[in-house]
Amino acid sequence: MAQRRRPRKKRRPRRRSGEAGFFKKLFLVTRFTIIFLVVPVFAGTALGGFLAFARTVPSIVELKQEVIPPGTKIYAEDDTLIGELKIRKGVFVPFDELPPDLLNAVISVEDAQFWKHGGIDYTAIVRAAMADIIHGKIKQGASTITMQLAKNTFLTPERTFRRKFKELVLSLRIENNLTKEEILEFYLNRMYFGNGAYGVEMASKRYFGKSVRELTLPEAAMIAGLLKAPSAYSPKRNFKKAKNRQEVVLKRMEVEGFISRAQRLKALKTSLYLAQDDEDGWSNNYFVDYVRNYLQERFGQEVIYKGGLRVYTTLDKRAQSVAQKTLQKGLREVDKRRGYRGPIDHVNLDELAADPSLLPSYRAAPPQPGDTTRAIVLDVRRGSAEIKAEAL
């Protein structure tokens, strides 16, 4: 049988070497022309855009020079002032006078790497991003103390990429212009601690009736716990929730090596005595906090803290005070119906005689009708009991 021949492929005519070399050189020239002309244009445009954007980031001159904007004043129905929203309000306490327990508590719970990072904790950012991806929603934050200072002092609260980028740029500026001690100093003197208190000095007096310089470890831990959510963790609103938060702070302090396990357990057992609010202002703080949250959501932090607003509300101070007292009375009645739950703690009478400081102290103004305080039961008899409490 005859074998079939495979059809031969047609060969393409070869180009002359001179022609191929010409096109190759033309391609190379064109490519390098694009690289040397287009890339610098894009790079220059990007750099120019970044520099223009950086100029919109606030300067830290305001922070260093202690320029205090007018803030917002809130008035009741009768045009009397019931609250102010200002960036800084109260006595400025230098870093050297801030108690170590407070500094360590804040660093432990807010930014454990504070002394090591340069304003941005990249490890925390990656960790938070991974947690968000796993849970499908925002579960963790990665803001350092420096970033919180930048955000709360200069920027608006909206969640946008532009504002977040400003926060990062400003954080780097702060780190480059201030020492770590100065950053902590400004942070603790400017942050809001709830109940109308701005800065740690005002917070200490508002919650414990004393200067920040006199805070004990348990008190410092509770103050530090307020930073995450001042209204939610206020001991005057929800003491149980505030105690739980205090426990978290103390645990973090132990993990970071600032306190021992024995110190943590002792601090958790220590009773806390809150200062009494003044008669004119205590019932209005809840309302002022509500107005503050409303204004912040609607207008942003920049406006309410720097715009010099005057806000007139429908608050009837007398009705508010009556409602507050009525609520307290009702809660006491509910508490009584739930029954006796046992003593808070036990005190050895011999130890009390040797150390009178074990006696609970009111730590504030003399008690008023309707107030409550803690006391030591010295003796119980049929139909009567003997108790002892300071200031009674």
TrEMBL record:
Reactions that this protein is recorded to catalyse: [GlcNAc-(1->4)-Mur2Ac(oyl-L-Ala-gamma-D-Glu-L-Lys-D-Ala-D-Ala)](n)-di-trans,octa-cis-undecaprenyl diphosphate + beta-D-GlcNAc-(1->4)-Mur2Ac(oyl-L-Ala-gamma-D-Glu-L-Lys-D-Ala-D-Ala)-di-trans,octa-cis-undecaprenyl diphosphate = [GlcNAc-(1->4)-Mur2Ac(oyl-L-Ala-gamma-D-Glu-L-Lys-D-Ala-D-Ala)](n+1)-di-trans,octa-cis-undecaprenyl diphosphate + di-trans,octa-cis-undecaprenyl diphosphate + H(+)
Keywords: Carboxypeptidase, Cell shape, Cell wall biogenesis/degradation, Glycosyltransferase, Hydrolase, Membrane, Multifunctional enzyme, Peptidoglycan synthesis, Protease, Transferase, Transmembrane, Transmembrane helix
CC annotations in GO: membrane; outer membrane-bounded periplasmic space
Residue ranges constituting the Glycosyl transferase family domain according to the UniProt record: 81-254
InterPro entries for the chain: Beta-lactam/transpept-like, Glyco_trans_51, Glycosyltr_51/Transpeptidase, Lysozyme-like_dom_sf, PBP_transglycosylase
Enzyme Commission number(s) of this protein: 2.4.99.28
Predominant localisation class: membrane
EC top class, as a word: transferase
Compartment(s): Membrane
GO biological process: cell wall organization; peptidoglycan biosynthetic process; proteolysis; regulation of cell shape
Any one GO MF annotation of this record: peptidoglycan glycosyltransferase activity
Annotated PANTHER family: BINDING PROTEIN TRANSPEPTIDASE, PUTATIVE-RELATED, PENICILLIN-BINDING PROTEIN 1A
Name used for this protein in its record: peptidoglycan glycosyltransferase
Gene source species: marine sediment metagenome
